[in-house]
Amino acid sequence: MGRGRRRSVRLLVLSDVHANLEALQAVLEDAPAHDAVIYLGDLVGYGPNPNECVECVQSLPGLVALVGNHDLAALGQADLDAFNPIAQEAALWTGRTLTNRSRDFLAGLGATTWSDDYFLAHGSPREPIWEYLERDGQARTSFGLFTQPVCFVGHTHVPRILEEGRNGGGSVPPARAGRHVAVCGRPRLIINPGGVGQPRDGDPRAAYGLWDTDAGEFQFRRVPYRVAEAQKKILDAGLPESLAYRLAAGL
Ligand code: ZN
User: Fold this and answer.
1) Residue 148 alpha carbon to ligand 1 centre in Å
2) Is residue 93 included in any domain, yes or no?
3) Ligand 1 centroid distance, CA of 250 (Å)
4) What's residue 167's pLDDT?
5) Range(s) of the domain holding residue 199
6) pLDDT tens-digit profile of 138-195?
């Protein structure tokens, strides 16, 4: 018997749901068939459905998940002075709303993880919880901190590709919806799939990615969701109004 062809493994790459159940459900309905899910942190904070989102993500197949700064804030494990007043208010609301089950799940997540194929961090390999990788050259140090062909990060809510060696680890704009990126180790990449539940690149559609490890290809994807429903729930919950309005602008 000859050696079999390696099974194609397709991974959904999700980040920053921020308790937006409408966006999360739209992404899962839109997602092509996949074998496993990478989740890059900030499952809660800002949005009105933290427990429902925890329950939903927890049940995804082959889940590998990280904790983010807003998850830690909701657990009372991050200094609230690091957040703006609106984020502070949302973190306190989320902390009061989380069930013990949700808290246990979030408290069990780490700040980084890796396999032979990937390295994962919410912010960056250098500062896994807090660093926003958004400027050219900023990623140089982070590329030195992992050996895998690709690192996935979230935190900025902006889809982005950083390429090792380009302007010292600079960006290759734009990471438009539908764009396919070769992930083959030459050059190595840091990829941000964008935010599911609070996009910040001016496009209100939920952002996520699909990584086909066999084809060596990552695809940036976008899907519209019921923004008005999410906004209404934010207002009904008594969360800051600006958190509802920003969803319509994708900012
Ligand atoms: Zn976030």
Assistant:
1) 24
2) yes
3) 13
4) 57
5) 10-249
6) 888 899 999 999 999 999 999 998 888 875 555 555 677 878 888 988 889 999 999 9
Q: What is the dihedral of CA 57, 60, 65, 67, to 10 degrees?
A: 10
Residue 14 lies in a domain: yes
29 Cβ partners below 8 Å, 6+ apart?
223
**CATH number assigned to the domain comprising residue 173:** 3.60.21.10
User: What's the structural domain count of the chain?
Assistant: 1
Q: Find the 62 Cα to ligand 1 centroid distance in Å.
A: 22
* Distance of CA 42 from the midpoint of ligand 1 (Å): 5
Q: How far is the CA of 6 from the centre of ligand 1 (A)?
A: 35
Quote the pTM value. 0.93
Tell me which residues have their CB within 5 A of the ion that is ligand 1: 16, 42
Q: What is the rounded end-to-end Cα distance, in angstroms, of the chain? A: 55
For residue 4, tell me if it sits in a domain: no
Give per-residue pLDDT as tens, 98-133. Answer: 999 999 999 999 999 999 999 999 999 999 999 998
Distance (angstroms) between ligand 1 centre and the Cα of 4 equals: 41
- Cα–ligand 1 centroid distance for 16 (angstroms): 5
Distance CA 74, CA 128 (A): 17
What pLDDT digit, counting tens, does each position of 11-46 carry? 999 999 999 999 999 999 999 999 999 999 999 999
